[in-house]
Structure formats: structure tokens, C-alpha cells
Amino acid sequence: MNNMNEVAQKVAESLLQIKAIKLQPKKPFTWASGWKSPIYCDNRVALSHPPIRTYIRQKLAELIQEEFGSVEMISGVATAGIPQGVLVAQDLGLPFTYVRGNSKDHGRQNQIEGEVVSGQRAVVVEDLISTGKSSLKAVQALRDADCNVVGLVSIFTYGFAEAEKNFAEAKCRHLSLCNYDNLVEVAAKHNYILNSDIEILEKWRANPSEWSPE
């Protein structure tokens, strides 16, 4: 996408504006993993804002068409990737499936919901990439079902080195509308953070599992 930087800037500004992403360098959040973090991201908030929801849908669809060519199926990662994936699949006129974190323990015990055709060229839609492990678990489930997963797209990525390593090892291309560097740049420009906070945010991203507020 030629205007990728412009898209990233707009997505970052929109997510900050509606508080889908919050930055608190001096009063960090605690993630479910136990990590202390100066950022909290809940892109599901965008679903409640039609203009932003529409923009994200359009740009994800454009990204898929331009970067992956002919695609035959869109698959969302449960749960946050499901609504985004449905919107994109509808926009592109493609079949949709979604992938659970684990197989159901009842009924048909599905992990993938929806119809999968052997050899289908599929793109996975994710809300957010941190370490990439849950995203790649969904990719592997689709591959195990004989899908040809050509890549994964997301709204936002933290850009962790661990995620880059995990995607490289899985041989899965991934693209995001917005990343952590875009976010910090826009946040500083629009006074969501102080310039003195940038160093804190950079230190966290470099070593999130070990970081602690000073």
C-alpha cells in the first residue's frame, strides 16, 4: 500500500482519540501475562465508532488485495479478530471462518468454525499482535486443515522482536495497519504523552517481560 505511513498515522490517531489505546508510562497497566506495561490496547472499542470501524475495514481489505492478490477465504482469530474478519470478508465478498484458541469439548469439537476447502488461499485477520503465539496457533490450525495460509493482517502490532522471530520461524508473512513506532510518534505529536515519556516507552518495547516502572 503506497500510502501506508498515512494510514498508520490515521489509525494511531483514531485509536488514541477513542481511547482504544491508552498510554500511561508513569502508571503502568498489568497484562494477563503479569507483564507491567505503559500501554493498553483494546481495538474492539473501534467497533463502536462507525467511521473508524469503516476506515479500518477498508484499509485491511485494500492491504489484503494489494499484498496477497487472489484470496479465497478470510479467517478471524477468536475472539477479537472475528468481527474485523467478518467485516473484511463481507467487503471482499469472500467466505469467512474463524479459529478458536482450542477445539470445543462438545458437539463436533471444532477448532475452526465455518467451511474450509482444501487448498484454499486464505488470509488470517487479527486484531492485535503481541508475541504472535495465539495468531500463529490459528495459522497452524488452518494449515493442518489443508488451507494455504498466505499471510496475516492486523490492526496493530507492538513490533516485539519475539513476534518477528515467531512469524519468521512459522514462515508466515504478516502486515499491520499501524505499529508501536507510529503510535508513539502520533501520541507525542498530539500531546497524549510528554517527550520525556518516549524513552520510557522505548525501553519497555525493547524488553517488555523484564521492564518495570522506575
TrEMBL record:
Family: Belongs to the purine/pyrimidine phosphoribosyltransferase family. PyrE subfamily.
Binding site for 5-phospho-alpha-D-ribose 1-diphosphate: 100, 104, 106, 126-134
Organism whose genome encodes this protein: Parapedobacter defluvii
Stated role: Catalyzes the transfer of a ribosyl phosphate group from 5-phosphoribose 1-diphosphate to orotate, leading to the formation of orotidine monophosphate (OMP).
SUPFAM superfamilies recorded: PRTase-like
Positions of the Phosphoribosyltransferase domain: 49-168
Catalysed reaction, written as an equation: orotidine 5'-phosphate + diphosphate = orotate + 5-phospho-alpha-D-ribose 1-diphosphate
Protein name: Orotate phosphoribosyltransferase
Upper taxonomic lineage: Bacteria, Pseudomonadati, Bacteroidota, Sphingobacteriia, Sphingobacteriales
Binding site for orotate: 130
Domain of life: Bacteria
GO molecular function, one term: glycosyltransferase activity
Alphabetical list of NCBIfam families matching this protein: pyrE
Cofactors required: Mg(2+)
Pathway involvement of the protein, from the record: Pyrimidine metabolism; UMP biosynthesis via de novo pathway; UMP from orotate: step 1/2
The protein's Enzyme Commission number: 2.4.2.10
Alphabetical keyword list: Glycosyltransferase, Magnesium, Pyrimidine biosynthesis, Transferase
Pfam families in UniProt: Pribosyltran
Record carries keyword Zinc-finger: no
